[in-house]
Design brief:
single chain; 160 residues; alpha+beta; OB fold (Dihydrolipoamide Acetyltransferase, E2P); 2 helices; 16% helix
């Protein structure tokens, strides 16, 4: 059985993105997100709300674009994977752990003003670049010898 590590979150940045560079020049952007959950308590008929805070990291051009176009309070939709890290505390008090989201794609949400002001009429969609790349691989995988390809690989008598 295979494994899946996929996360999709929509929320607001809790702080301005922080862009750093590794010694080899690779950009890494770290930011926090707050994701709100609202529901109604069935017994008390009261509206309830909780907030989950998540730390996100975006690498390369994705990180540079998030740093450029987002700020504290900006709404964002991210797709990525969970990354679990453990380390020994510096004071020797034991092990520590942290669960982060590694961002693999994102979408702009909300009005342009919510995204940090006017961007000169241009709001890049880095997610679209990711889709183009994925599409090209799908075309390669749907060749004559593959059964899982596009619509041509489906049986016409499927009852739906």
């Amino acid at each position: 059985m295979g494994n899946v590590n996929k996360v999709m979150l929509m929320g607001n940045l809790t702080r301005d993105p922080e862009l750093k560079f590794l010694p080899n020049g690779t950009p890494v952007c770290e930011f926090g997100m707050a994701i709100n959950r609202v529901w109604y308590d069935q017994q008390t008929k009261e509206k309830k709300e909780t907030v989950t805070y998540v730390t996100c990291k975006a690498w390369g051009r994705t990180g540079e674009n998030i740093n450029k176009y987002f700020k504290k309070g900006s709404p964002i939709f991210v797709e990525g994977r969970l990354d679990f890290q453990t380390w020994e505390a510096k004071d020797g008090s034991g092990k520590r752990s942290k669960l982060d989201v590694v961002v693999e794609g994102f979408e702009f949400c909300g009005a342009r003003a919510e995204r940090g002001g006017d961007s000169g009429g241009f709001a890049p969609r880095p997610r679209a670049e990711h889709r183009e790349e994925s599409t090209s691989h799908a075309a390669e995988d749907s060749g004559p010898g593959n059964q899982g390809g596009g619509a041509a690989g489906y049986d016409d008598e499927v009852p739906f």
